[in-house]
Write a structure and sequence with these properties.
Layout lengths: L6 E7 L4 H10 L3 E3 L2 E7 L4 E7 L4 E6 L4 H5 L4 E4 L1 E2 L2 E2 L1 E2 L1 H12 L5 E4 L7 E5 L8 E5 L5 E7 L4 E7 L4 E3 L10
Antiparallel strand pairs: 1-5, 1-6, 1-9, 2-5, 3-4, 7-8, 10-14, 11-12, 11-15, 12-13, 13-14
Length: 177
């Protein structure tokens, strides 16, 4: 639930207006984050790298309870994601995990979270993503690592060596002497 301190929320935009909404929110002084990735698109005569939003129709905004109407009334905004009439907040660590994965220029894909129910929660122990917590999807030799963004029901997926991850909830046992 939204409070008087700024918290991340998922802003659902009209189709193909993510960049414009992010720009307008910035002009209004609202901190926002639009993860952009380069993807290769094929036309009939060539391939081209195109920068596009990682999550179609979503922009993350860090707002207070008093800024809700300011965001909802912005041109291009459809709504702020909510369930049961309550705005859903996105934890800071999930937004930071998205930033780290996007900034690393790793190949990413987005899946609905329901596709990842069988995976175990893990933390990456080494490398540029050390400390990132997510879900390991065990369907190949390399692990498919996902960071779930519960507020929008989507997950960010990348391939990572299984040797770099450690399951959460397993405590090291001390040897008795």
């Amino acid at each position: 639930m939204l409070s008087d301190t700024p918290q991340w929320v998922a802003v659902y935009t009209r189709s193909r207006t993510e960049k414009r909404v992010a720009e307008l929110l910035s002009q209004r002084g609202i901190v926002n984050y639009l993860p952009i990735v380069s993807r290769r698109h094929k036309w009939s005569d060539r391939y081209k790298m195109v920068d596009e939003p990682l999550f179609k129709s979503y922009v993350f905004a860090k707002i207070k309870k008093t800024e809700v109407d300011k965001v909802r009334n912005e041109q291009g905004v459809a709504t702020i994601v909510s369930f049961g009439g309550n705005i859903v907040t996105v934890p800071d660590d999930q937004v930071e995990s998205i930033r780290r994965l996007v900034d690393a220029k790793q190949e990413l894909s987005v899946l609905e979270s329901s596709a990842l129910r069988k995976g175990a929660r893990v933390r990456i122990e080494e490398g540029p993503f050390a400390g990132t917590v997510g879900v390991l999807v065990s369907d190949c030799k390399d692990g498919n690592f996902a960071v779930r963004i519960d507020a929008i029901g989507l997950s960010l997926v990348t391939s990572i060596d299984r040797l770099l991850v450690k399951p959460l909830g397993i405590k090291k046992q001390k040897l008795k002497t």
